[in-house]
Design a protein that fits this description.
By secondary structure, the chain is of the alpha+beta class. It has two domains: 25-100, Helix Hairpins (Orthogonal Bundle); 108-246, Cupredoxins -  blue copper proteins (Immunoglobulin-like, Sandwich). Helices cover 36% and strands 27% of the residues. The strands form two sheets. The protein has a five-stranded mixed β-sheet with strand order 3-2-1-5-8, covered by helices on one side. Strands 4-10-9-6-7 form a five-stranded mixed β-sheet. A hairpin with a 2-residue loop joins strand 1 (108-115) and strand 2 (118-127). Helix 2 runs antiparallel to helix 3. The relative contact order is 0.16.
Length: 247
C-alpha cells in the first residue's frame, strides 16, 4: 500500500497537469518560483489583453486613427514598470539558478551511465571483497513480470537506492549516444554525454519511490529506459549496501 501511495505522488499520472510532489529543496524552489512567476504572467497578460481590446473597441467606434506618435510621460511609464517587474523576477531567478549549480562536499557519490537502452549505476564508495565496486544495470521490467501496484513502462529490475537527509553527488555520463537522466521529484534533468562527466548534487528529504525517464531522444527505444530511485532511511540504506556487497 505504501508503494502505491508513493507511486501516485512521485510518478506521472494520466492527464496530470501539475508538478509531481517535490522531494528535494531544489524541487520545492522550482515549484514555488513557477507559481510566483505564473501570478505575474497572468496579471501582465490580462492587462495587455485589456489594452488590446480597448484599442480595438475605440477603433471600431472611430476608424480615423489618432495622429499622436509620441508621449514622453507614457514612454517613461511603460519603460519603468516592465523594468521593475523584470528586476523583481530576476532576483529569485538568479538565486535559484545559483542553487542549482551549488557544489557541496558530498557524503556519497554515485556514477550514472546511460546506454542504449538502459542505465548503469556504480557506487564507487563501496568496495566488495574482490576489489570491485558495487554496481548494477537497470533495465525496464517487461509487462509480463509486473506485479500488482507496479507501473507499466516505469518499473525496473534494479532500483537505484539513496539515503535520505544526505548530500548525494551523481556523476552522469553515457557510453554511446546522448541521454538525459531526469527525475522530476528531485528537480533533476542532466545530460549524459559520451566522453564527458556532468555532476549534480541533491539532498533528498523524504523516503519514497521516485520515477523518471530518459529525456534526450537517444534512439528507437528511447521511451523504454525508465529511472527508479528508492530513497531509504539511513539504516535501510546501509542494509541495502551490505546486501549488494555480499553478492
Amino acid at each position: 500500500m505504501q508503494r502505491r501511495k508513493s507511486a501516485r505522488c512521485d510518478a506521472p499520472r494520466p492527464w496530470q497537469r501539475g508538478f509531481q510532489d517535490p522531494a528535494t529543496p531544489i524541487a520545492e524552489g522550482i515549484i514555488r518560483f513557477h507559481h510566483d512567476l505564473m501570478f505575474v504572467l497572468v496579471r501582465v497578460s490580462v492587462f495587455v489583453a485589456w489594452m488590446l481590446g480597448r484599442c480595438v473597441w475605440h477603433f471600431v467606434g472611430n476608424p480615423v486613427a489618432s495622429q499622436v506618435v509620441h508621449g514622453t510621460r507614457i514612454e517613461i511609464v511603460w519603460t519603468r514598470i516592465p523594468a521593475r517587474i523584470l528586476v523583481r523576477i530576476a532576483v529569485p531567478s538568479f538565486a535559484l539558478l545559483y542553487s542549482l549549480d551549488e557544489r557541496v562536499d558530498p557524503a556519497r557519490t554515485v556514477k550514472v551511465v546511460g546506454h542504449q537502452w538502459y542505465w548503469s549505476y556504480e557506487y564507487a564508495d563501496y568496495v566488495k571483497e574482490d576489489a570491485s565496486t558495487v554496481g548494477f544495470d537497470s533495465y525496464r521490467l517487461p509487462d509480463d513480470e509486473l506485479t500488482t501496484g507496479q507501473l507499466r513502462l516505469l518499473e525496473v529490475d534494479h532500483r537505484m537506492a539513496l539515503p535520505i537527509d544526505t548530500h548525494i553527488r551523481r556523476i552522469v555520463t553515457a557510453a554511446d549516444v546522448l541521454h538525459s537522466w531526469a527525475v522530476p521529484s528531485f528537480g533533476v534533468k542532466i545530460d549524459a554525454c559520451p566522453g564527458r562527466l556532468n555532476q549534480v548534487s541533491r539532498f533528498v528529504t523524504r523516503p519514497g519511490v521516485f520515477y523518471g525517464q530518459c529525456s534526450e531522444i537517444c534512439g528507437v527505444n528511447h521511451g523504454f529506459m525508465p529511472i527508479v530511485v528508492e530513497a531509504r532511511s539511513l539504516g535501510d540504506y546501509v542494509a541495502w549496501v551490505e546486501a549488494h556487497r555480499a553478492e
